[in-house]
Please model this.
Amino acid sequence: MVIIKKPSKKSLYFQYVFLIALTIISSVVSFAFFLSLFDITLFKSNRQLFFEKEYINPAKDRSLFYNAESGKNITRENGAIVVLVRNEELHDLLSSMRQFEDRFNKKFQYPYVFLNDKDFTKEFIRATSAITTAETKYGM
Model:
């Protein structure tokens, strides 16, 4: 025979409080999920605010590259790409240079300055000069 004990008032009180808390939490989570479906955010991080208000995307705003007052194209600053590298790191460097050339330097043609603690080998000079059309210089 099974004896079923009647719960005390204190026990029932805690059960009700627990159910109410669980209901509130699930409602908040459901509301947050609902807002995320419509890309509505109640609180925005500093990063989100920066990219919405202050950040200027250079791909969309061509005024960053063109000076309306003088009528000159200002797409390139004076500068050079300085690379500290050893002869034995040639393979890794060529991979990085190829990516850099494809994504950036083929447009701007910044010169490369390669620095090493020893003289550069002929193979190194030939390979790095062949991968770019920009000017290359080598030094110790």
User: Anything to note?
Assistant: The chain has two domains: 11-54, 78-139. The chain has a mean pLDDT of 81. The longest helix spans residues 9-37. The CA atoms of residues 12 and 18 lie 10 Å apart.
